[in-house]
């Protein structure tokens, strides 16, 4: 079979690599892909942008693609799955209506409240409806969120009501473009966050391995938020008891609630879950796709055939399959360009990739491009070095051995990915 992966990041490299490893798959196309996808066996990049839905449909038809898997949220929120289905093409991901779980935080908060799914208390405002006195009556600290898609950057945590008010006003004023037309101001929840990703087929749910990511740019989880600086799987904070609570109190009611609301959810569903000190799982956010960088360590552990799981989901038969996991832990370190997250520098030549290829583990590419016989950076998050090991500590060692063998001008990466999990292991 022929598979098309839509997107160009580290997540998409991991998806393409995983699909290409399937004996059922003759070829994987990646639109548009990167220098890493291009160098995988059985994988071919095609120069069609992830947002060009009409172009992707033409590509899938011309190449007789059997299965399309969508990486990023943009095309999902824009309705790529509905458009593929209208042409009779198999495309794994949620349709446009349920993709609002990621596309609109205002939609999600209202949905969670109506279905009594645990989440932070909140209020939604537009510039016209904004009520500063309401904010002043709430308890600090606050989390201020642009409602629309803002590439993971439209969330600001502030200590006082006055800061919350000025942050919201900056969002109304266009700081995040259209994404800030509506603003959600919510209660700050203490706890430890985990990424809980499942596959859904409208009715049935297949949970993937748990994971945790690091969103801040600097060690110790300091500095501005990024798309993600590293991740590992499994997440020790998700004990079997917490896992059961997330399935029963969050994922189950969400999938049933969406079906009941007339928008059944098929695709990857990513819950950002804040696990309170007493184990209560609160929804921080939903994403309508796999996480980046969580996908890289998760798929490094997946032993089952991803194409089989996606096809089972599209047939409404997730109840008939199981996912098998490598019992080892996996940990990915994101290597970013100078200036990331604000103004990443582009065009630096990457050295050491051949050396890294001789080491255990796997380097997934994100913002890379081949330029003659060099591979150069093309954006902020450039590579993700993934190691595996009997413990998170060992996976961390393998990942950093890989990362340390690669360099370019201005490369930056955190030295402490996985520290919470390592501390838990050492307490045991
Ligand atoms: P989001 O884009 O909604 O995932 O928010 C980005 C990050 O902000 C999350 O990963 C959390 O670390 C943090 N965050 C968001 N909402 C809250 C909240 N209500 N309480 C505490 N932290 C939050």
Explain how this protein is built.
- With 428 residues, this protein is α+β, with helices and mostly antiparallel strands.
- Helices cover 32% and strands 28% of the residues.
- The protein contains 15 helices and 20 strands.
- The strands form 5 sheets. The chain has a 5-stranded parallel sheet.
- Strand 7 and strand 8 form a beta hairpin.
- The mean pLDDT is 95.
- Residues 120, 143, 145, 152, 155, 186, 188-189, 193, 215, 225, 272, 284-285 line the site of adenosine monophosphate.
Task: Jot down its keywords.
single chain, 428 residues, 5-stranded parallel beta sheet, 5-stranded antiparallel beta sheet, 20 strands, 28% strand, globular, binds adenosine monophosphate
Could you give a short description of this structure?
With 428 residues, the protein is of the alpha+beta class.
Write the layout of secondary structure elements.
Elements: E1 2-7, H1 10-20, E2 27-32, H2 35-38, E3 43-45, H3 53-62, E4 67-70, H4 73-77, H5 80-86, E5 91-92, H6 96-103, H7 105-114, E6 122-126, H8 132-136, E7 142-146, E8 155-158, H9 161-172, E9 182-187, E10 192-201, E11 205-207, E12 212-218, E13 222-233, H10 240-260, E14 266-275, E15 281-287, H11 295-301, H12 306-314, E16 329-336, H13 353-357, E17 362-365, E18 368-371, E19 374-377, E20 381-389, H14 392-404, H15 419-427
Parallel strand pairs: 1-2, 1-4, 2-3, 4-5
Antiparallel strand pairs: 6-9, 7-8, 7-9, 10-11, 10-14, 12-13, 13-16, 14-15, 16-20, 17-20, 18-19
Helix pairs in contact: 1-11
Bound molecules: adenosine monophosphate.
